[in-house]
Amino acid sequence: MATVTAPAPAPPSLTELNRQHWDSATARSFDDIPWIREASALMSTEILARKDRIHPGLTDKTARVLDYACGQGDSSLPLAPYGAQFRGLDLSERMAAAYNAKAAAHGFDASFMSATAGDLVATPPSAPDTPEYRDFDLALVRMAFHHFENIDTAAARLVERLKRGSGVLVVVDFLPHEDIGGGHVPKEFAAAANTISHSGFFQETIEQCFARAGCVDVQFEMMTKVKIGEAGDTERDVFICWGRRADDGNRVSL
Predict the structure, then answer these.
(1) pLDDT for 189-205, tens place per residue?
(2) How far is it, in rounded angstroms, from Cα 210 to Cα 112?
(3) FRET pair for 219, CA 20 to 30 Å: which of 1, 7, 135, 240?
(4) What separation in angstroms does the CA of 209 have from each of 24, 52, 206, 234, 253?
């Protein structure tokens, strides 16, 4: 009798690799890693320097903010004095829990700042679809776009969660660079290499992505370079791009 060989199991998707990695990454707080802490603080400073131009709700403290791929809350917390409400979404349940723990440690009630697990890029999206997770003034994605397999889907789904005519999508990420390697990240984060889909983005790529998602008044600016890795000898160019959801909403159905 012929031997029947079972088919090999399918390799995990990029989404699943990201979920697994970021679940395990919560074992060590990013606050404990100097170069990540310093890069995060620098990016927060750059965002705050532009807050009046990004959205008036960050000036009069009325903005409702969606922090997508929120991690442990390092994007939301610096904005807390300037917003009315923050909601985080992350693939990783453990990252969402870490976000909530960190928000509570800073004295914030869950009604003001909280996160849950969710994936807007999945088909269909596996994220809350309640009024609490819609009609945001701001959707912020900081240093996560390069993990998304399809940035057009991500941008369109995020824009769809914004207020028509006034909500703003904000993306902070790398310009094109060589793949991270050669000890440029701590060894405990080496597995992150398997979770990256893009080695940065050209300005034209991001601006066209925003336009396809239904954004207008798109602004693209360079930020201060950040140092990557414990040795501190590798720098990356970082950009910030923001655009307002058009009155007619999404121009792409995804």
Answers:
(1) 555 655 676 778 999 99
(2) 28
(3) 135
(4) 31, 24, 5, 28, 13
